[in-house]
Amino acid sequence: MPDAVLPQDFLWGFATASYQVEGAPHEDGRADSIWDTFCRIPGKIADGSSGDVACDSYHRTQEDVALLKQCRAKAYRFSLSWSRIIPLGGRSDPVNEKGLRHYVKFVDDLRAAGIEPMITLFHWDLPDALHKRYGGMLNKEEFVKDFENYARVVFKAMGSKVKFWITFNEPWCSSILGYSTGLFAPGRTSDRTKSSEGDSSREPWIVGHNFLLAHASAVKAYREDFKDKDGGRIGITLNGDWTEPWDANDPADVEACNRKIEFSICWFGDPVYFGKYPDSMRKQLGDRLPEFTEEEAALVKGSNDFYGMNHYCANYIKHKEGEPEPEDFTGNLEILFYNKAGEAIGPETQSVWLRPHPPGFRKLLKWLSDRYGGPTIYVTENGTSLKGENSLPLEQLLQDDFRCEYYRGYVGALADAYDKDGVDVRGYMAWSLMDNFEWAEGYETRFGVTYVDYKGGQKRYPKKSAKVIGDIFDSYIKTD
Ligand code: PNW
To answer: Nearest 5°: phi and psi at 369?
Structure first.
């Protein structure tokens, strides 16, 4: 028997994102997103692939619902493709009823199966037309208004069918990976070997600022015109890893640990809860970090009904001496897998950035709860890839014990945070329901509890973890 319990109404399930699973990029009037165009540039995706077919989920909604049922999921977090709904993206552009109907029907099907839909409005796939028209997220005036318009179209179509809304998924990733390192769409960076355009020292901070304003405008719209009658809640999902000092006896490393979290999570979290950026960021970035006008600060402050948390791993952190580089986005520090004593933070996975460390999940839940005054938290992603999984024969691959252990460790840490530390965490979505298009890594890296046979007609085969997750939650959730 576990020594911690989760409440009876704890909402658990699985997550995916539109571009990673849907395929059907040109069907029923959908237009390109920045990921469609990015994938066409040679060298950007490890295996030269794209989301053109992916899991073919656009044609297999029934199969996906059945899979969720089979896994005993209570909820499903998925994202909408903006360019299916408004192909050209903008507030004066036509709405594509076919695209919109597809999602309304999917929501109806989920609800009929007793699965709570949790909708992410934006999981990185900006309509390409908006990127070309005015620079997408770099353009505050246009982007904020167009996102609010898109959100309103969706709120109106879904009405009271949807109770959980997430505006943006991981704005850190779209800002830093899309506008600083250039690894993600639209691939802008100061590194001229990768892109002829971009300014890593400025653009990510502008994009981040505009995400916050777009988020807050959509939340205001929902609260003013939909929330009372439709009864949903809305928030933003932020990603962030736990940090441990490289040298626990060096106060500068201990301080750098906090600073790393501020640069990755509080960049967005502090404006949402406090109406301002962290002091550590202002100090390092100066006027490259945009200022909120009084009106903007008031709009952004208080714009979460819940905190959406994506969490995967932890790192050791070593402070750096001297002036930070203008392109630095970490807080002037090194992100490491080994500490001073040579101990690893966790085992290797297929993802170069991901080393599991379950105790960090409990610590970060508490850290965030303390910083933001005990907000309601929904964990909107957590999961792992497995080193070499893609090269295993099918029978072996389906016995994903490493992933089962990961979930045992992380869900255990979550239950401890709830039951022992008093963190108000009410839901958990595993990443992912099935293997899917893992962005710049293509299909080599698998995160699913379900194997997808990309060469065999996208057939799905549940792995051991697909059943184990349900067993883990059964063991923690109070039944009396
Ligand atoms: C998240 N990093 O992305 C995303 O929300 C998912 O779409 C994705 O498939 C999943 O995690 C697994 O990668 C991340 O480099 C991508 O630190 C990269 C990083 C973190 C999160």
So the answer is: -60, -45
